[in-house]
Amino acid sequence: MAQGKTRELSYVQKVERSISTTYRERLWTPFISAIKRYKLIEEKDSIAVCISGGKDSMLLAKLMQMLLRHTDFQFDVKYLVMDPGYNEANRKKIESNASLLEIPVTIFDSKIFDVTDKVGKSPCYVCAKMRRGHLYHMAKDMGCNKIALGHHMSDVIETTVMAMFYGAQLQGMMPKLHSLNFEGMELIRPMYCINEQDIINWTKYNGLDFIQCACPLAERSKETANEDSETNVSKRKETKELIKRLKRINPNIEKNIFNSVHAVCIETFPGYKAQGEQHSFLENYDKIEDPGIF
Fold first, then answer.
1. What distances in angstroms separate CA 78 from CA 54, 104, 146, one per listed residue?
2. 172: closest CA among 188, 186, 156, 150?
3. Are 188 and 96 in contact (CB under 8 A)?
4. Which of 58, 103, 41 is nearest to 199 (CA)?
5. How many CB atoms lie within 10 A of CB 131?
6. What is the tens place of the pLDDT at every residue in 43-66?
7. Reported pTM
8. pLDDT digits (tens, 9 = 90+) for 155-179
9. Is 125 within 8 Å of 141 (Cβ atoms)?
């Protein structure tokens, strides 16, 4: 072999190298930071990475695969794809991308779309709840104690803003949660500190093409704009556009919103909800001194 000849990298090796080099500060570093900051992974965890086939969950699967390969920390990962009733093209796209990225997925059917297709009110809520239940159930049957979802920082920010503007409450999205219905199971969000735009840039950089929204209700709602699915999509899109406009004025707007949910000054709010119960500042009014903010 000639001296100094560079070994040609395979496609998947180039994709992984882009994560560890070109996008290290945008993807890998915040991924590791979230795991450490929120203690998302513990020794001997068995984690089911839930893959929908979109850019976020596919990147999460690759990040978890790389972490498992390069860390001395002992844990196990399984890559779980639930098919709620995708059309043939979307199903094949997921299988093709999993093969391309060398992610060994386990696919199971749930037929959720058949159920939600008959739901008259709040089909999106029913679909989300059923999806979560099926994923927990399958993950537990596979011996996992955690499921990992591909929610990112932009989801956290948008959820916070939407809750305030459209839900009349200050509510965030937690980096991890204990399951209420599946004892011993936990949900984690390892991409909690990654911005969506960086995921989009990474996807384009590698020429990857993932499925978009595969919901049949959302497709039909393009023609019937009064459906719940259309309303939810439009509110999310509206919030994205608002944040984008605000960012032109203040480039730090996303970071500020994200940081604000980590620094809530509860003493300055006239009311709050904890453990499902509503509380008023009057409960402890005489015990709290002026915080000196104003």
1. 17, 8, 10
2. 156
3. no
4. 58
5. 17
6. 999 999 999 999 999 999 999 999
7. 0.88
8. 999 999 999 999 999 999 999 999 9
9. no
